[in-house]
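Dear Dr. V.,

Thank you for agreeing to look over these. As mentioned in my earlier message, I'm a first-year student in the group and I'm still getting used to reading structure tokens, so any feedback on how I've presented them would be very welcome. I ran two proteins. I've put each sequence directly above its structure. The first is here:
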Amino acid sequence: MSLFRIDRIFDIEIIEEDPRTYMTLREWLSNEETKEPIKLKVHLTREGIRQCLTNPWLEQYVASDNEAGYMEMMIETSEVRFTGDFFFSLGSDAIVEEPAEMVSYICEKAQSILKLYQNENK
């Protein structure tokens, strides 16, 4: 099975339909095999919960009491930066506890942005 970025496709033509290869996004996400797993643990605010529930790859791992929540799941080690970028975008609505590599990555990103704004004001 091939995976293509939809924003890079200019033209597509269905040659033949094969029902054996049809797969929904949820099926594809659940079939993905983790080769180098690492534990992800995140505390969420109400807004963090809402944001995670809108993501098909995260929603099944969200546990909440409507005011606060958390997530625990295994992710691929190679996805630490990608996943870290998502949680960074949530700001204070998501606090990553594990893995340490992701916590460090998010801190480095925050410090880099802080330096940009501090230098801008001088």
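The second protein is here, in the same arrangement:
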Amino acid sequence: MQIDGWNPKDIGYDTGYNHTYGVGTDTDAKSTGAADGSKGECQTCKNRKYQDGSNENVSFKSASHISPEAAGIRVAAHEAEHVSNAYTKAAEGNGQVVSASVTLRTGVCPECGRVYVAGGETNTTIKYPNEANPYQQERKSQDAADLTGARIDTRK
């Protein structure tokens, strides 16, 4: 599955997910059938909600339930929104994204023992040129001196 040219299996991406754990008991697990090994969600998994904690305009601004089976792809897609926002912000300010990394956190449900994606975090670094900085000006003039005549077109 591709999301805006990004394959969620290629994990590698800014701030993200605050995860609120649900609360459940062993009796809840027995009533849903999760304790005896069936495929149903236990009460804790049913009550688990995900919410974004950033100040960006992305999904999950209000707490929402995601099934444990879908949490991985949904959290990865959400974190990809943060990466996309970083590239947009960099382009608007004449900057360059130097690095972008995503970390997905997993957890184990205390009630049914299912491993699930508990949330994610995206860290990005954007570099902006500072033309007023005298060091930047010197660097540009050094680059110009180094590159002058470096490429000569010998075609007629």
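From my reading of the second output: Helices lie at 26-32, 43-47, 68-92, 134-147. The chain is about 35% helix and 25% strand. Does that match how you would interpret it?

Kind regards,
E.
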